[in-house]
Fold this sequence. Notes:
By secondary structure, this protein is α/β, with parallel strands linked by helices. The chain is built from 14 helices and 17 strands. A hairpin with a 2-residue loop joins strand 6 (about 105) and strand 7 (about 110). The longest helix has 21 residues, at about 305-325. Adenosine-5'-diphosphate binds next to helix 11, helix 12 and helix 13.
Amino acid sequence: MRTTQVIGVPEENTPIEGVDAVVVALKSRSCPPEEAIRVSKAALSWLRRQRARQFFFKYCSTFDSTDRGNIGPVADALLADLEDDFAIVCPAFPTNGRTVFNGHHFVGTQLLSDSGMRDHPVTPMTESDLVRVLGRQTDGKVGLVPYAVVRNGSSAIVDHMTSLQAGGCRYAVVDAITDVHLMAIGEACADHQLITGGSGVALGLPDNFRRRGLLADAARIPMPKPQGAGAVLSGSCSQMTLTQVALTRESWPSFAIDPLEMAGSQDYAEKVLTWASDHVGDTPILIYSTADPEIVARVQSNLGRSESGSAIEHAMGEIARGLIDMGVRRLVVAGGETSGAVTQALGIDRLQIGPEIDPGVPWCEASGTRRIALALKSGNFGAETFFAKAFEMLP
Ligand code: ADP
């Protein structure tokens, strides 16, 4: 599907044309449930006015949320607005190691509650049974479509969902271990107004539209066109990013941001940009604050946890602006929060989704005052050679 991503709910008169799917990005994972509900309802209402036929509430593939919300409350509110009473819940993303078996969520070979997610600073997950986790977030009854049913394909899944619905369930957690299961689940949900899940379960949805003649052909997803110098800005300190940065800094001009020096300096971003102006060219440049946990801990104890995070994010935004002024037109940003800071600093409110570099990370073309090719990579996504691979893909 030709897909556009808008950042936040757009103004009423923003034209959306020539696309098959629109993603409305909301920063609602860890905000208070009331706020998450408000922005999600606004997004739904806007999408309905664009005459969307099906709505997908996407959450993290580790289903993280506080026990107060936000997944249950948001799903409840969306169903109520749609005057509907049933939706699936499927955070599986097998390609990235997230699977659901008998309602229990796994990250790789570990139960969610044994994985690194148990220590997440904001949304720790200490329970792997998704039926129970969701049960605490909604007054609706939660049932399960187990693996033994899912492996028999879409009509078995439909039958099981029908019986759950007849038994009064509002939600069905659906098992999935491979993409084959996700395709079957997608087919089984062809007539659902609301689907909830990680991004993986969307895999099976385009074929429903294609079967009904609503999508011409397998749409050709265009590669972003902007030509110009390349750069990577990395503010992610996740394990995979550490490896990606370590591999790349050997071969590209690289600048390591020192957050403690930055805190004591008025013009640190300028210093970084002066270095950048001497190095932008045929080979992409790498600017990173990515650091080991011990260094991050030292920075946080000196500057404060949230203070250091937002100071570095702010600097990344300023540096991104300077790079674009310098002629950079191909930019990879590593880190979820960092990506938010950079898109905000660049005033980007729309992304045309292009081809995937690695699972879950596409090249995009950002429109705004300047057109740029942009790839936003969150935490642990991407292979070890992600940065080089991203630039090799561009024409
Ligand atoms: P991820 O997607 O890997 O979680 P994020 O960008 O979402 O990455 O989060 C990383 C956070 O860590 C950001 O707030 C960033 O500013 C902060 N950060 C980056 N580098 C450092 C560092 N060297 N010391 C302390 N905090 C850092």
